[in-house]
Amino acid sequence: MKKWMIGTVACLGMMLSACGEESEPQSQESETPQVVEAEIVIPEDIEAEEAAKLQVEVSQGGEAVEDAHEVIFEIWNDVEGEESEQHEAEHIGEGVYEIDYTFDEDSIYSVQTHITARDMHVMPKKQFTVGEVTEEQMKTAEENAENQKSNHMESEDGDDSGHDH
Is the residue at 40 inside a domain? Predict the structure, then answer.
């Protein structure tokens, strides 16, 4: 009887210790890929009718993304409210993608990059000034930017009619 009781206690002990050795659940990072991040880099001083290098630095988890499937720069004049132009970027190394672009006139512009990399799509946007602008141009650009936000929110209701800038 004592042998039977010792065997039972030993089996229970092994079963309890096995329950305590469950593998820890995998961390959230291994299940969800890190977000692709992008930072638009615009030269500080851009003059109309002179080529400017527009860049976007693409990274994921602090490492440069060298294998983006597509990087497009979409540019529009915020004062004129005109339609946008799209230009495919060239990968120049270390996660940096670039275009050369010549702006026609002094004004306030916006650029939005469309980056598809590692099964993700990110679209950072940045507004900047080319040359000298007036207070009136600034006010018009601000109004047009607000209208864009309103129009974009309305088109999210299922009407994907694209970008009208």
Answer: yes
